[in-house]
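Budget justification aside, the reviewers requested a transparent look at the raw inputs and outputs of the sequence design task funded under Objective 1. We therefore reproduce one unedited record. The lines immediately below are the structure tokens for a 235-residue chain.
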């Protein structure tokens, strides 16, 4: 109960204050930080790796890196942008190892995502079963088509469409020109529309949903590893 109350007390704290408390070893603040940024960071890793389980692993490792380095965060940039770059680098490193190809995407070219705009996941309260089944089928189709996009287009599309970042924000986070963001997003959207036509718009907000169970699992796993590291038991 005490831990839950501590987490709840951190809900309204700004990112800079959360970061300061995490740097002081406040685990409740760290849990709140993860829950606040979990979805956008998971989507960033998922857009690069195209694998749910590996994206979760990459996110956990990125959180551990962030936990160790957060004392260096000074608030010059948004915390979400700082976290996104850590997650992106972790995911890109895994991609290079997996593909062993020279075409691994450098962050300055393909980049990743920026701070979280806490997007709402709309739920239909009185949706008929057949409609729910059709919506789920459409979402799976959309996710599959997003996975088939070229790497450069996929990351930009996930950040622009799913996380609703502006062109300017996406360009800043990815360290690419705004014109490049516009071009990649336009081409990605055109490819998706050709593949699934009008179904894109009605399913897009639910693509790669970050459900409560996955969020809880990642938070619990990272907290356990930081506690183990503090006790000198983690290798």
């Amino acid at each position: 109960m005490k831990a839950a109350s501590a987490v709840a007390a951190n809900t309204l704290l700004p990112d800079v204050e959360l970061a300061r408390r995490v740097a002081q070893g406040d685990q409740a603040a760290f849990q709140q930080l993860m829950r606040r940024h979990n979805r956008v960071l998971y989507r960033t890793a998922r857009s690069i790796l195209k694998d749910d389980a590996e994206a979760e692993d990459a996110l956990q490792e990125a959180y551990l890196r962030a936990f160790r380095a957060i004392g260096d965060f000074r608030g010059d940039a948004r915390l979400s942008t700082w976290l996104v770059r850590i997650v992106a680098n972790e995911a890109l490193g895994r991609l290079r190892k997996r593909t062993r190809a020279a075409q691994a995407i450098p962050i300055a070219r393909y980049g990743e995502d920026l701070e979280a705009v806490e997007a709402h996941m709309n739920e239909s309260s009185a949706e008929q079963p057949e409609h729910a089944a059709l919506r789920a089928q459409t979402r799976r189709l959309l996710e599959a088509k997003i996975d088939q996009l070229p790497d450069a287009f996929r990351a930009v599309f996930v950040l622009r469409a799913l996380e609703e970042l502006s062109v300017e924000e996406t360009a800043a986070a990815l360290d690419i020109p705004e014109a490049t963001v516009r071009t990649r997003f336009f081409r990605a959207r055109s490819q998706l529309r050709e593949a699934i036509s009008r179904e894109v718009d009605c399913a897009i907000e639910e693509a790669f949903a970050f459900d409560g169970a996955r969020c809880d699992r990642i938070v619990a796993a990272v907290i356990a590893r930081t506690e183990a590291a503090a006790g000198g038991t983690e290798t």
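Residues 2-116+126-230 form a domain with the Rna Polymerase Sigma Factor; Chain: A fold (CATH 1.10.1740.10). The first helix runs from residue 2 to 9. Computational costs for records of this kind are itemized in the attached budget.
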